[in-house]
Amino acid sequence: MNKFASGFMTICFAVAAVISSSALAQQRPASAGPVDPALMEDLIAANRILAAQGVVDAMGHVSVRHNRDPNRYLLSLARAPELVTEADIMEYDLDSVPVRDPGRRQYSERYIHGEIYKLRPDVIAVVHAHTPSVVPFTVSSVPLRAIAHSGGFLAEGLPNFEIREAGGMTDMLVSNASFGRALAEKLGDKSAILMRGHGFAAVGKSLPFVVGRSIYIGVAAKLQTEAIALGGTVTYLDPEEGRKIEARRDYIRPWELWKRQAMGK
Ligand SMILES: [Zn+2]
Q1: Ligand 1 centroid from CA 175, angstroms
Q2: Taking a C-beta distance cutoff of 8 angstroms, is the pair 198, 60 a contact?
Q3: Rounded Cα–Cα distance for residues 35 and 45 (Å)
Q4: For 209-222, what is the HEC assignment?
Q5: Is the distance from CB of 177 to CB of 95 less than 8 angstroms?
Q6: Which residues, in sequence order, are bridge partners of residue 204?
Q7: CA-based angle 113:197:179, to the nearest 5?
Q8: pLDDT tens string 98-123
Q9: How many helices (H) and strands (E) does the chain have?
C-alpha cells in the first residue's frame, strides 16, 4: 500500500470511529437529571426493608419512577437489596436501557419494571421478589386469597403469569422486553401478579405502598396456609370488604417503623 492509500485508510477508519461513537451516544437515552434526595433515601430504605422483612434474599429488586420524568425509573445495579447504596442506583428509560454505565452488572429481569411503567401510568414503584411463602400459591390450584385485613388488596384475587404462554420452555426469567410486556399485560389493573414457579411482582402509587403490599403478600400466604392446615372451612374476605379496606389504606405508620428498623435511625 502506498503512502497516499495508507493515509486515506487511516482517515476512513477515523471517520468511521467518530460516526459509530456518535451513533452510540444517540442511542443512549438522556438523563432526567438529579434525583430528589428524599426519594433516593426512600429507595435505599425500600431495598433494606424488603431484605429485613424477608421479602427478598440475594435476589429480587425494587424500583421507583424518577421524580423529574415519568419516562425514567431508578433501580440498583445487580446487587443483593440488603447491600444497595446510593452509588448503585442506575437510571433507566422505559425500554430498560440505562442512561449511563451500560457496562455495569444489571438485573436481567429489569424489564418487569420498565414494561409495567409503560402500561400503568398510575404505578410509581414496582417490586419483584421470590418470597418462599408465596411460591406454592403460584403452582397450586388453590388461589392466594385474603383472610385478614392486611391483605385487603388481594381480596379480588391475583392473576398468575405463565411464562410458557409468552415464551414456551425458558429459564423462567423475565429477561427481555417481550416477556416483560406479557407480564405487564397479564397484571392488568391489579395490585400484584403471581409468577408461576417463580414469585411475584407488586405495584404501588409510592415506595411505602409497594413495599407494604410486598410484605403483606407474604404474610397473607402464611396466614392462608395456616388457616387451611387447621382443616375446617375458611372464610375469606369478600372483594367488597377488600375495596373498603383499600379505600382507607396507607402505610405511613408501618413505613416509619420499617425504615427505622432497616436504616438504624
Ligand atoms: Zn425473578
Answers
A1: 9
A2: no
A3: 15
A4: HHHHHHHHHHHHHH
A5: yes
A6: 125
A7: 35
A8: 999 999 999 999 999 999 999 999 99
A9: 9, 7
What separation in Å is there between the alpha carbon of 59 and the centre of ligand 1?
A: 7
Can you list the positions of beta strands (E) in 169-263? 192-195, 199-204
Alpha helices (runs of H) in 120-162, residue ranges in sequence order: 135-139
Is residue 40 within 8 Å of 68, Cβ to Cβ? Answer: no
The C-alpha cell that represents 132 in the structure block: 418462599
Q: How far is the CA of 110 from the centre of ligand 1 (A)?
A: 9
Q: What is the dihedral of CA 160, 125, 188, 225, to 10 degrees?
A: 30
**Ligand 1 midpoint to CA 180 (Å):** 11
For residue 102, the SS3 value is: coil
Is the CB of residue 73 less than 8 Å from the CB of residue 234? no
pLDDT digits (tens, 9 = 90+) for 126-158: 999 999 999 999 999 999 999 999 999 999 999
Buried-state track 228-260, b at ≥16 Cβ within 10 A, e below 16: eeeeeeeebbeeeebeebeeeeebeebbeebbe
- To the query of whether residue 109 is one of the catalytic residues in this protein, the response is yes
Answer for the pair 100, 69: CB distance below 8 angstroms, yes or no.
no
The DSSP element (H or E) to which 76 belongs, if any, is strand 69-76
Nearest to 161 by CA among 189, 183, 132: 183
Q: Which of 109, 185, 240, 256 does the annotation list as catalytic?
A: 109
The beta strand positions in 131-198, using DSSP E, are 160-161, 192-195
Q: pTM of the entire structure?
A: 0.90
